[in-house]
Write a structure and sequence with these properties.
This protein has one domain: MetI-like fold (Orthogonal Bundle). By secondary structure, it is an all-alpha fold. It is built from 10 helices and no strands.
Length: 286
């Protein structure tokens, strides 16, 4: 019981340490702004991102078009705002799927040990040995490209990495006094895992999941660039980079803006994950 109380107290104190550094605080703000834009996009811009105009093609500073238009006369600002939604939707859903699959498999393997651990982790090792991007492409290609196939492919590809961490953490917690007390009290294994072990590994797992979010965003953008992601006319930053590269020298903003937005989101997620890890690490010097 003392182990359980001490762990929860450390987590409570760690929350107060989040975002103390300027870089960490800026990263939290950036991620929050991206989420806000994705959720409130339709209320931020009035232009239709799929509707073009013939009198303003590749024009920067045209009336009513702050960031100009693309080669089909579509408002670039509207496409940037609306393009945040599919990238973040796929990234968050795929990360959630990876977290559920990976954490679940790792919990079972680390707690059970023995043959169960060996079988589960060998399956994870086999998945890790397979190139992630190739695995995702195979899964997406087997289905029709879209949100569902992207989420499934990316989630499955990222789950083994989380499973390895969850297995190590669960194996460490399995021998703690509070877990032994729960087992001796007759608590069933699923309840021990969910109510006792999981809350005590949630901190480091959460930090890793946030870092995994940045990887998922990179995969989502890369697949859209290859034409295997969100299909047009739905705006998507990855596809916008692919479509705009033809005009890289005449209208570089068509490539630079969506590529920079994707990069900023990925980097900010990494710094947020670092901040979570440092805040939850009792050996941190902060």
């Amino acid at each position: 019981m003392s182990d359980l109380i001490g762990s929860r107290l450390r987590t409570a104190f760690a929350v107060r340490r989040l975002g103390r550094g300027p870089l960490a605080a800026a990263s939290w703000i950036v991620v929050a702004l991206f989420v806000l834009v994705a959720l409130a996009g339709p209320f931020l811009v009035s232009a239709d991102p799929a509707r073009g105009t013939a009198d303003a093609l590749l024009t920067l500073g045209a009336p009513g078009h702050l960031l100009g238009t693309d080669d089909l006369g579509r408002d670039e600002l509207a496409r940037m705002v609306y393009g945040a939604r599919p990238l973040l939707l796929v990234s968050f859903l795929a990360t959630a799927l990876a977290a559920v699959l990976g954490t679940g498999a790792g919990l079972v393997a680390g707690y059970a040990g023995g043959r169960t651990e060996w079988v589960v982790m060998r399956l994870m090792d086999l998945a890790l040995a397979f190139p992630s991007m190739l695995l995702i492409i195979l899964i997406v290609s087997a289905w029709q490209p879209g949100v569902g196939s992207l989420v499934t492919g990316i989630g499955i590809a990222l789950a083994p990495g989380l499973a390895r961490l969850a297995r190590a953490l669960a194996a460490r917690e399995a021998g703690r006094d509070y877990v032994l007390a729960a087992r001796l009290g007759g608590t069933r294994t699923p309840r021990v895992l969910v109510q006792e072990v999981l809350p005590n590994i949630a901190g480091p797992m959460l930090a890793q999941v946030v870092m995994t979010l940045s990887v998922a965003a990179g995969f989502a953008a890369g697949l859209s660039y290859l034409g295997l992601g969100i299909q047009p006319p739905t705006p998507d930053w990855g596809y916008m980079v692919q479509a705009g590269q033809e005009f890289l020298y005449t209208a570089p903003r068509l490539v630079v803006l969506p590529a920079a937005a994707t990069l900023i989101f990925v980097v900010a997620c990494n710094f947020v994950g670092d901040d979570l890890r440092d805040a939850l690490d009792p050996r941190s010097s902060r």
